[in-house]
Amino acid sequence: MCGILAVLGCSDSSQAKRVRVLELSRRLKHRGPDWSGLHQYGDCYLAHQRLAIVDPASGDQPLFNEDKTIAVTVNGEIYNHEELRKQLPNHTFRTGSDCDVIAHLYEEHGENFVDMLDGIFSFVLLDTRDNSFIVARDAIGVTSLYIGWGLDGSVWISSELKGLNGDCEHFESFPPGHLYSSKEREFRRWYNPPWFSEAIPSAPYDPLALRHAFEKAVIKRLMTDVPFGVLLSGGLDSSLVAAVTARYLEGTNAAKHWGTKLHSFCVGLEGAPDLKAAREVADYIGTVHHEFHYSVQDGIDAIEDVIYHIETYDVTTIRASIPMFLMSRKIKSLGVKWDICGEGSDEIYGGYLYFHKAPNKEEFHQETCRKIKALHKYDCLRANKSTFAWGLEARVPFLDKEFIEVAMNVNPEYKMIKKEEGRIEKWVLRRAFDDGEHPYLPKHILYRQKEQFSDGVGYGWIDGLKGHAEKHVTDRMMLNAANIFPFNTPTTKEAYYYRMIFERFFPQDSARLSVPGGPSVACSTAKAVEWDAAWSNNLDPSGRAALGVHASAYGNQVKAVEPEKTIPKMEVSPLGVAI
After folding, report:
1. Catalytic positions (predicted)?
2. Of 74, 410, 457, 524, whose CB is crowded by the most CB atoms within 10 A?
3. Residue 267 annotated as binding?
4. What is the pTM of this model?
């Protein structure tokens, strides 16, 4: 993994231009503290800041084909690189890097190889034979990437906004699942799964198929030559990731390098719900657990740094990024270079509490599709940038291409929340791992109510942020909000406060246009707000805004549902895999 920056076709091959590209590349140094480099071919520049994870000794970039006519700079992890190498028997690889296959695949297949890659990636490939280039981003947008255009006809690519602002006339987020070709001068979607059309699937629910797909997604991500761990909040998603990782770590190459004892990490205010649950899960699955505490003031002090790094003014993203940012710094100080985490499950399974109000399976499914398509603007952006701020990589098995296709092919009727039947949010995922004979997790953790990360770290956290903003944004300032910020006008003092900071770092129109907006309740899309008329008067991204659903909802207390039904007894192989 690394931070990449490329300037292509700028009609300037001078030393001054090279120095400028190096200067911009250094803005991404936090993403890759292990090595840096710049490759120049005429008026095209490929720069990188490397975080060395696979083949740290020889995998420096750019990566080339045999005669160095094709150069690649890439931020990514290609989990099937060993299989792909076997499909390229006539090629000689210079390094053991998982990304070394990209240039060779291009030689064999041209621009139509991207769908062969199983992993997360953003890359720029320069073909010096005809001075053409292609740019591509992974299916969901787990890696961050932006594209910009200069007045001189140049195309700019960067892992972060800060590599582009000031030098491009216009820049924007590079769309996930797309490829940009210099030959066609346009984007082309390479990722076209069945669910993307939002057509309602009809496949029956198969808990074992779902379980196998997820276990496979976790295991393939245990590809490393450096120390790693798991982010464990004590919620369902991170707990399942931790449990599966702990169960299958032995026998992997990762275990051969670093042992079979998994390290887990959690962050929260003193007494936070997540801390207690995470500690219990860690004890149950046998991890070496690290618990980090922070105060509301610690978080407030980090607000400006966080907004600079995550490059958004979206309220819920900032709320959740701050504790993740603080925890990532602690984790990196222990010598860990990547973590595996639980992002993406709520979007796939309708795990957010507002899904309790979905009127039918059609709207439920379409909302999950909308949420997955927008992940690169929210949770993927947070997980990527708040960890990479300290040179730490986050891996997300729930967003595995194969797993998503299995999960999104299930008839959404099975995902619907039906309290009268004991089916709470993400029931299909909980039931798939409810194995009475070989349990993955304690039953009450497996059926723990959804807590958004910004709530689970401590309910006082969001209240503290609101209180801080109240001191810095006056009622008079709010009266002028629409005039000062006509695009995505902030409607709360907290949103106004974050926007002021963002505009100071990124004052360009392109920067503010890169951030999503619109009404939301408990992380819903604007469309889903229509599901409950009362929500329009209670627009807040916190899960506690889901009135009548969250057990600690604002001004409301309801009893959480604890289903008692379990999955039927399963046969289990000697390796612990259900068969």
Report:
1. 2
2. 457
3. yes
4. 0.91
